[in-house]
Amino acid sequence: MDVDIGNALASVASPGVSRDSLERLDEQVADAHERIEDGMANGEHGYEALNLPDRTDPDEIRRAVEPVADAEALVTVGIGGSALGAATITEALDSDTKTVYLDNVDPAWVTAELERLPLENTAINVVSRSGTTAETLANFLVVREAFEDAGVDWTERTIVTTGESGPLRDLSERHDLPSLKVPDGVPGRFSALSAVGMVAAAVCGHDLEALLEGATAEADTLSGSLFDCPAYAYGATSYALDARGAGMNAMVPYAESLETYSEWFAQLWAESLGKDDLGQTPLRALGVTDQHSQLQLYRAGPRDKVVTFVTPREADDRAIPDTEVDDLAYLGDATLGELLDAEFEATEASLAAAGRPNVRIELERVDEYELGGLLYGMEAACVLAGELYGVNTFEQPAVEWAKKATRGLLGGGEFEEADAVAEKTELR
Ligand code: PA5
């Protein structure tokens, strides 16, 4: 990926960051890079995720999905980091395999999603690092029951990805299901390039090697200076802008296929950096759709945002047909792709003209290689930003608090978090 921070500089944007400040920040980037390199070399929790391009074995993943390689549809049951990486990859790329992601436990929605699936030819991909997440386990039990009701043997069609032990591991061993292990030291939201994100990609027939090669190419750019490393340029600029008042980061891909990527980014940024009263709030948007809604705020609202564009240089195109109306002749001379590009250029220029900081991330195209680079690059950007904020990027105590409270409230164990919820409810 290429990162252009020109429209985030103080000479053109407010808030903006001056070249001098970035040069001073680069000394901290060099120190942070040393810590990141040490963490990677020692396989420390979290930093280990940046080693995944070297550690993930595509053959092992393909072997595990072999029994369901011909599935017409794939239902992935997982939530947060156990779903969004896989969804980002499979939603971005074309495949004949229909994919459904069951993360929410809204009963009407779960039922409707299951009804849309050809269960007799659907594979099940259950993913939970801890193996204890109530939403995932509950949805898996519901999916299992739906298969049984339809007379389909779910044990023949299920692949499990989980940690070494836990209830989901027990379940998979009890039924002798093909299973993969979530690698040690890799938090959920940093696991897209492991089996967690790649089982779905394998069932959909995507090129796993290319995903990892793209990530490796990005890993090769990690260096002690933000001026030599696109990922660090992004992480450091976002951090510096936040310190100057841009407390929100709107992620705006100009490709429908990357809509889920914004969701993935939002989780990565929020759950990793939102600690100790610090962190930049991610916003999700899509070009061109949100030009007709959120853009007004981004250009003329409070000066508290940076807008990040992601744009592929090449994409399939389609001509706009000629029309009998003279005023529309300009459209007939163009293609939808040219219109999309013009909308992007206009939006970027309009924000720049209004002095609103924005950053452009360019991909060659949306394919496995470029996606691997984008996912890895943004993870590295996030790790770097976490070092600069001085937060623990790889923990998520607030998320864990709510998970324990939920289990406790349902009688799934003794948790003080559940007692705290019960006390609050009594006070109402
Ligand atoms: O990034 C994270 O740690 C979380 O978003 C988890 O991925 C999410 O809570 C699901 O957890 P698990 O994989 O244990 O089911």
Distance between termini?
Answer: 51 Å
Using only C-alpha atoms, the radius of gyration works out to 23 Å
The percent range for helix content is 40-55%
Architecture of the largest domain, according to CATH? 3-Layer(aba) Sandwich
Would you tell me the structural class of the helices and strands?
A: alpha/beta
Secondary-structure element pattern, one letter each: EHHHEHEHEHEHEHHHEHEHEHHEHHH
Number of helices: 17
Strands side by side in the biggest sheet? 1-10-9-7-8
Low-pLDDT parts are none
- What's the number of domains? 2
GO biological process, one term: glucose 6-phosphate metabolic process
Catalytic activity: alpha-D-glucose 6-phosphate = beta-D-fructose 6-phosphate
InterPro entries: G6P_Isomerase, Phosphoglucose_isomerase_CS, SIS_dom_sf, SIS_PGI_1
Enzyme class: isomerase
Model description:
By secondary structure, the protein is of the alpha/beta class. It is 47% helix and 12% strand. The termini are far apart. Helix 9 packs across helix 15, helix 11 runs parallel beside helix 15 and helix 16 crosses helix 17. The relative contact order is 0.16. The chain is built from 17 helices and ten strands. The protein has two domains: 215 residues, 3-Layer(aba) Sandwich (Rossmann fold), CATH 3.40.50.10490; 126 residues, 3-Layer(aba) Sandwich (Rossmann fold). The structure holds 5-phosphoarabinonic acid. GO terms for molecular function: carbohydrate derivative binding; glucose-6-phosphate isomerase activity; monosaccharide binding. Catalyzes the reversible isomerization of glucose-6-phosphate to fructose-6-phosphate. It catalyses: alpha-D-glucose 6-phosphate = beta-D-fructose 6-phosphate. It is found in: Cytoplasm.
